[in-house]
Amino acid sequence: MPFNPFRTSRPRMTYIPDPFGRVGQGEWRAAAARDPFGRVAADDPDDAFDFSDPFHPAAAVGARGRNAPNDVANLEGLLRLAGDMDLVPTDGPTGYFGARLDDAIRAFQRRNGLTVDSAVHPGGETLRALARHLQVMGRNGDTVLAHLTPEEARYLHAVTDGGTVNPRTGLLEFFDNSKKKGSYIWRTVGDGKVRSSHADRNGKVFSWANPPEGGHPGEAPNCRCWAEEVADAGECKRLKRAVSLAQNEVQSLKNELKEHEENLQQHQELLDATWDEFVLKLVTLNLSDLFDGTDGFWALAKKILSKLGKGLEFEELVEAFGRVSKAQHDKAIAQEIFAAKKKLIHQAEERLARLRDEHERRCRPDREGLN
C-alpha cells in the first residue's frame, strides 16, 4: 500500500522525564524522524511534500489562489485533520487544487461562520480558524497537535491564545497558566487511572486565579488532566452560529437526498417500462426463446426477420433494446449520486454533532468548582 504522509499515529518515541520532576523539561528520544504531526518521513523523499510548516503557505490557495503544490498539500492535510476532507481515496494529499479541495474549504468556512469564498490566504481568517479548531482538538487529547515543534507552537500562540507544556507528552501546548485569566473547564482523559479527586472535577469550572487543591490540570505529578477554555460571549455566539449553519446544511442535504430518491425511483420506473416494451416486441416477433443478450442473438434475429420481410421490426427491436441500455445507464448514475448524497449527509451530521458537543462543553459547563 503506498505511503500516506498524513497518518496521525503517535510516534514511536520514548520520553525521558526531567530528573528533578519538572514537567516538560525532559527529553524525547525518537526511533525515527517524524514531522510535526507525528508522521514518518515518506519512503521516497524526492516525491514527498514538505509538511514541516503547514501553517505558513507561500501564497494563497483556493479558487483564485496561486495553488502551489506544496501549499495545497499542506492545506489538504489540515482539512483532513479538521474532518472536512477525506484523503483515503487519494492515499494522502495530492498537491492539486480541484473540486474536492474547493468543496472542503467551503464546507469548513461555512460551518465556522466564515466568508465562503474558497480562499485561504497566509495569515487569513480561514487559516486562523483552522489553527483555533486544531488547538481545541489538541486540548481534547488528540494526537494531532501533541507533536508540534516549538516554531509551530509559537505560531499557534500568535494566532490563538498562548502555550504551555502538554503534561501527557512533555511538548509545547498553547496556553500559559501563569498569565491566564478567567476560568477553565477541568477535563480528564476518562480512563481508570484518573485519580478520584480529579475525576470528581471533570467538567467543572475553576478559576485560574484560585487553583483547586493540588493545582491546575497537569500540575500535580503524573497528572494527565487538561484545561479546556470556557468560551467567551463572542466565541459562544460564533459556535451557536456554526451549529445553526451546520443544521441548515444537514436539512438542505436531506431535502436534496429526497429529490434524488424521487429521481432514482423515476429512473427505475422508466427502466421497467423499457424492459416491458422490449420483451413485448420479442414475444410478438416470436424471438423470446432465442434472446440471450449476446451479439449472436442479434445476428440470428436479423437473419430470421429479414427472411420474413420484417427489417423494420428488427430496427424497432434494436431501438427498444437501446432504450433499455440507456435506462440502465441512467439508473446506475442516479444510484451513484444518491449514495454520494447519503455519504455527505453522514459527514454533515458528524460535523453538526461535533459542533453541538463543543458548544455544550464550552458554553454550558458545570460551574460547581468555582468559589
Give a written overview of the molecule.
The chain is mainly α and about 375 residues long. The chain has two domains: about 160 residues, no CATH class; about 130 residues, Helix Hairpins. It contains eight helices and seven strands. The strands form three sheets. A three-stranded antiparallel sheet has the order 6-5-7. It has a two-stranded antiparallel sheet with strand order 1-2. Helix 6 runs antiparallel to helix 8 and helix 7 packs antiparallel against helix 8. It is elongated, with a radius of gyration of 29 Å. The two termini are about 55 Å apart. The N terminus is likely disordered.
Mind sketching the topology for me?
Elements: E1 13-16, E2 27-30, E3 61-62, H1 69-82, H2 99-111, E4 119-120, H3 125-139, H4 150-159, E5 183-187, H5 196-201, E6 205-207, E7 226-229, H6 233-284, H7 295-307, H8 311-363
Antiparallel strand pairs: 1-2, 3-4, 5-6, 5-7
Annotation keywords:
three-stranded antiparallel beta sheet; 2 domains; Helix Hairpins; 371 residues
Give a quick summary of the entry.
With 371 residues, this protein is mainly alpha-helical. 47% of the residues lie in helices and 6% in strands.
